[in-house]
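Protein chain data
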Amino acid sequence: MASAADPKSAHPFLPTEIDQAHEEAPSPNVYHLVGTSNVKQPLAAAKPEAQPLQSAEQGYYPQSGIHPRYQNPEAMMEKQEIDEVPSWEKRFPRLGGIFEKAHSLRTRYNDYLAEFAGTLTLVLLGDGVLATVILYPEGTETSVWLMVSFGWGFALTMALFVSGGVSGGHVNPAITFAAACLRGFPWRKVPGYVAMQLLGAFCGAGLLFGLVKSSIDHRDGGERHVLGLKGTGGIFATYPQPWITIGTAFLAEAFATGVLVLCIYAITDERNMPGTRIAPLAIGFALTAISMSLGFQTGFAVNPARDLGPRVFTACAGYSSSPFHAFTKYAWVPVVAPFVGAVLGGLVYDFFINHPRLEIREDRRHS
């Protein structure tokens, strides 16, 4: 007599019939557990034990079908992400170890890489608009300023679409700092975010410089100037109007950044007016409005990375130290003032809009 632990006595089918039934049944998908409707579930002892992910020698990704590790609804999304094999990994299977390390780095630092890509997009497109109006001055001052305002607004919109779903789309050290102070953003991530934003801005300026270098050479004859008739430094960094004092410039930058943060918090607050799907476009329009109304005195940097990264690049690209000494060493203003303005703008939103309005809404909901 077979013992109680013998699977043959506990299951009505022979092993060969079980295998045949599984072969005839349709292949399972990620929304169902292993097993078919016409075959009874095997004993728990007969189920394969969960195995760890395969090593690089065996191939980084598991075989097709449901891996024992993913035979539960909680792990379905994880399996879907792992099974999405990029085509270039299929074409070069011998480089599986390199791809495994790259995938691990992308997974671990994905939000930082998104900040890099988003800030690079912002600077490349935004400074590209400035290159157009400076190197090809065809329009009037009014039309040029409108083009700059809308150009930077659309550049910010595209940057948020690039990075918003992964990292939150800060693309601005002042926004990151305000989020850490007022929105619970982890302080441990702030240095990495700021570093990648600065690096992204630097690389964005470098890419733009490579694209328009011939036009810059045509304008200044190969001798780099920040200001003046042959000046091209304004393509990359911001500079105030010549009659503006440092104190006025600081207030202008801080105030403009505060208004930007106030608008961002209002747009992204789902308990205020839900509409986060259009948030990147709305935030871009907010920057356009700030440019048109508040930005003419200083060039509305409102972003330390957007100004400092390209300014450092211009110093490395033949402009010597002029980007840091122009207008009585103005370079520190668009770096420091946005941090102050961002926190103040967030505090204004929280004091005047956030908590009082939420309490009123809760009272109405229960009344």
Notes: The chain has two domains: 1-76, 112-362. The radius of gyration is 29 Å. The domain at 112-362 is CATH 1.20.1080.10 (Glycerol uptake facilitator protein). Residues 158 and 259 are 20 Å apart (CA to CA).
